[in-house]
Amino acid sequence: MDSKKLKIIVIGASGTVGKEVAKGLEDSGHEVIRVSRNSGDLHADIQDKKSLENLFQSIRNFDAVANAAGDVKFGTLENFTDQDFAFSFGSKLMGQINIVRTALPYINDNGSFTLISGILTDEPIAGGIIGTTVNSAVEGFVKASSYELPRNIRINCISPTVLAEAEDYHPFFPGFIPVGAWKVAKAYEKSIAGVFNGRIIKV
Question: CA nearest 24: which of 93, 114, 110, 152?
């Protein structure tokens, strides 16, 4: 994609990362549609495939989807329940996979998807088993699907470390150097406006 003005859907736009992504893309001259569960220009829940289908059908003819939504449960292996795994897989993994699947008929040629994983793929922490598992699966999906997406559509994944703004999480990431959400947003811009495909962009 060139430097033309793009029509970009930002999902999770009310969150710490999503807010910065939307702002940064607007500051670069792009048209941004903010999507969250309960706020923003439009509403959608990534755990609800039908709501995603309704979202993309209502917009159509967009150039990129940037996702900053998706949750996982933290805890110990001994205490995790089936519901903890099901929720995490349904949210951060299948939620993101379904974003791609449901948006594909409506995204423009040469468009792009940008998903999110996290540092736990490479550097597990205590209590982060589900996060490591889900992030690894998201990255696997991105790498594999990059070979099969039609119409020169690209897909990448942003893998940030713990956010500077997420101070409540810092004790669980001892020795990790936090990164500002604005810097993570720059990685999204690199994915959307650049030429990368099938890349895991670490921040």
Answer: 114
Q: Element (H or E) spanning 184, and its range?
A: helix 181-193
| Whole-number Cα distances in Å, 19 to 118, 127, 142, 172 | 18, 27, 23, 24
Dist CA 112 CA 151 (whole Å): 10
Cα separations in angstroms, 13 against 17, 33, 68: 8, 9, 7
| CATH number of the domain located at residue range(s) 7-202 in this protein | 3.40.50.720
Name the token pair of 142: 């991105």
Q: How far apart are CA 127 and CA 81, in angstroms?
A: 13
Could you tell me what percentage of the chain is helix, strand and coil, using 3-state DSSP and rounding each to the nearest 5? 40, 20, 40
CB 184 within 8 A of CB 160: yes
| Per-residue pLDDT reduced to its tens digit, 79-109 | 999 999 999 999 999 999 999 999 999 999 9
In sequence order, what DSSP letters do the residues of 40-86 get, joined into one string?
Answer: BSEE--TT-HHHHHHHHHHH-SEEEEEE---------TTT--HHHHH
